[in-house]
Amino acid sequence: MGIETPFVAVDGIVMLYDRNEAFKGIVLIERKNPPLGIALPGGFVDIGESCESALVREMKEEISLDVEIIRLLGVYSDPKRDPRFHTVSAVYICKAYGEPKAADDAKKCFVYPPDEIPMEKLVFDHAKIIKDFMATRYQST
Amino acid sequence: MGIETPFVAVDGIVMLYDRNEAFKGIVLIERKNPPLGIALPGGFVDIGESCESALVREMKEEISLDVEIIRLLGVYSDPKRDPRFHTVSAVYICKAYGEPKAADDAKKCFVYPPDEIPMEKLVFDHAKIIKDFMATRYQST
Which InterPro entries match (chains A, B) (predicted)? Predict the structure, then answer.
C-alpha cells in the first residue's frame, strides 16, 4: 500500500488513590531502555487493539496496576519528541488504587505528588505533558 | 526495530463560517477512493510532521481551505473502524472561511448544517465522530 506513518503509542497519567479516596500522586517509572530517565508509563499500540485497550494493557505490564481511564488529555506528535523515531502518543488521564510494581520496560516505580515531580529528569516531552495535565486538572477531572 | 503499530490519520470537523461570522455548516466530502461514500476530510500523517500540520495540509489538499484548529475532539482507534486496515485517527475541530473546493482524494465537497448531515451515507466511524462533536459542541467550542 505504500503508506508510512509515525508509530502510535499511548502514555498514562495515572492518578493513584488510597482506599479512602485520598490522592497520593502520579505514577512515574525509571526506564530500563534508552532513552534512560524518568517517564510516564506507556508503550506502543498493537495492530488490532484500540488505544484505550493498549493503555490498560501497558499500565498493567509496566506498573502492575488496573487503571480506569478518565479522559484523553491530548495527542503529542512533534516529530522530535522521541529521539529514536517519530512517535505519536495519545495520553490518557486515569485513576488507580494499590501499589505500583515495576515490570517489563520499567526498572522502578515512583509515586510523586504533582508539585514534587523531578521535571528535569523526565525524558521525551513528558515534562510538557505533565504541565498540560496540571493546567487542566482542576477544570475537568 | 520490529515495532508495528496501526497507521495514524487525522480527520477534520471543519466548521465553515461566512465573512459575517455566521455559521454555514460542516464540510464533508464524497470520497474518490474506496470505501466510497461521504466522509469527513482527512488523511494519513506523514513521518516527520505533527498531527496538527497533517490536518492543516490535508484540509488544504482535499477541500482547498485554510483551517484554524480549535481543539482536539478525540482519538478514534477501534480496530474495525476502517475496513481496509487498522487506522488510528486524531480528530480536530477547526474553523474556516471561504468556499470549499474538492481536490486530491475528494470527488465533491458539501457544506451541511449539522442536523442535515446524511448520517447513513457516512463511511468509517464518521457518524459516531459527528455525534460526539454535536454532543460537545455547545460545551467548549
Answer: NUDIX_hydrolase-like_dom_sf, NUDIX_hydrolase_dom
